[in-house]
Specification:
Length: 750
Amino acid sequence: MYYHKIDHPKNFRVAALQQSEFNTSVDTFDTDTFRITVRNPRWSENFSDMLGIVQATPIETVCSYELRFEDRSMKIRNTENKSTVLKGHEDLLFGVCKEKWLFCFELQDGDRFYGMGEKNIGFEKHAVRTKFWNTDVWADFAWSDIDHGSTDPMYASFPVLLLKRNDIWIGFMIPTSSVVFMDTGARQMIEGAKQATESVPFFYLGAQSGSPDMIISVASTAKDIVSRFTKLLGLPPVPPLWALGHHQSRWGYATVADAAEIDKRLLAHGIPCDAIWFDIDYLQEYRIFTRSETPSMPQSSRQRKLVAILDPGIKADGYPIDKELLENNLACLNSEHLPYIGFVWPGASHFPDFYKPEATKWWKEKTAELAKTGFDAFWVDMNDPSTGSMELDEMCFDDGKIKHHDLHNWYALGMAKATWDGLKQAYPDKRPFLLSRSGMLGSHRYGALWTGDSISNYHHLAKNIEMILSMSLSTMAFVGSDIGGFGSDCSDELIVDWYRACLMVPLMRNHSADGTRRQEPWAFSTPVMNSIKQVIRMRYALLPYLYSLFHNLSTTGEPIWRPMIYESNDPVFEHETGQFFIGDALLQIVKLKSGETKRELVLPEGLFLSLTDGTQIRSRTTIDFSKTPIPLFVREGSFIPIALVEDRLIATTADIDLSKPIMLYYPGSAKHAAYTYWYDDKDGYEKERSINIVADQKDNDLHIKVSTPCTLAIAGKIDGNIMINNKEVQAVKKRLPLEGTHLSVRWVCL
């Protein structure tokens, strides 16, 4: 597999979609969202249909744009003013080369590209070429590229491309498990040769196999595109609250004694933590579904969870699990119909064929059995799949009938779903939590992804922020990174900055490699540990807000982390990743360079309130990190539900009462605001509950209507009276009980 070479339109035959040779259909999904599918005997499978990638069904709806084929080209036009927003290339709209296919579109000056999921090639992606092929990065790239370079492709494949064209956004999604390629106007040349001249600049995207299948959506903001695409693939479930807490992991945790020691240290230092993770050392000689001992946490754990790793590689030595796999014909086969061999931690290994229903059922049952020995959740690793030095071509599926590259990117999703189902079988009354290293479109339905094995340096911190924001634009919202970096030694400065940057990241896990400097908070100096502790406690206080955002994600498809261009089309934000929104209400700016003391914060329209000191700002301002170590700002007209954790021992999320938040409101100059706070029983399937709040400013008075009694903390200037449910109330001036802030608010207890 050549990672940095992709197919080019000049090797494709021009194919007219309106001719009888190709059976072309266009379906409408949601507003201004069109799916183009092409059928022809050369393509035996449509992978989206075969794997159930697209969950939605076509609908009839009124659209503001229309997709039309004209001669050999295609246009998307505004139905009202007839302006063309997207045009197929005049020489080749659609091309074929045996099983390969592509669509080619005209490129315009000023076009900007985003999304592409877990791509380590920058946030804005104009003039790049890339391939979507899940890799084992540390095994497949040189260390120099890994340490300070830009490895591409990465562990997961999300072929979602967002084009910003002035004030119009056009989204493209290819719902397939096959190898996808994209070129956003990269130069086609070899060093020393002249650039080939093209009559019309273009960008293109396609796949190496499977029936042509592409979804296009047009909107005025990126927000609409992301929400539509997520709904098409199926809305994600709400995770248990504990999954959003702080987690502690390290390659090397292996025994109950290790977990007990971590638990003891967490309690001694008063550091909240909801889960302790076991890496491969808990296994017997790295044999999957074995354990060196039966895990059991001490009572002092305060309901801390245990999470264990699972790899797909099963040691090929005939131990009982391997024997079951082979005797029941559940393994991937090679071209000679022999069980495929790859090399993972246990050495020579067999691999379950998750495409076969009987293999999926077997893995589910084994996962459930393992969970019942004391594990609350799992993380699935090496599922790219990683096979060491062994070539992947011979790893075939469905008794050897399906070639590897057709399902390569899907393999991780198949493993995740089988593991997810095993957790549901083990704990039917609890919501599963699963973390996966690899994945593809649809993986968001089965838990979280992390950005894989990063290095402890500022280059990787900045790149992880870019990737998390890009994945948020590409339907994968539940994502995080290894805080502090996985490989190399983390410095005091870096561990604090990484924690601060990830204050509200969807997945907060400290994870590091065996042989590197320890990264538990207490492994650093006391001042450093206290800075980390402040971040973690601040996160736990803001968990009601974060948890409510996950409820919103499950109904709207709107991600948690949102880049500045998510709702604003202002060109000033086109390359911005050092500041971003968390939901609608919170704006964070982060330090991404060693020794950096100040950064300029650029605001969108409206007033913002500093959570540090209550300063109200509406334009560019300089942030001094020494005075404001966690720069967090509230947008005017926003409500922030906060858990009361100050001066309390908070060991885990079990100590947080979601039903009684402090509801911080910053009216600013907003005349009207409405907010729904969603919560439930944290870990089961109990019906959701909500607190609904509406606020209006009239004649200097603030009128608030609340559906359920709660504590209100009103920030900012109020010239008149405060009316709650049509009754005037007297507010008490006090400091907001949120660690790291000195914000004075008007306090009202209902």
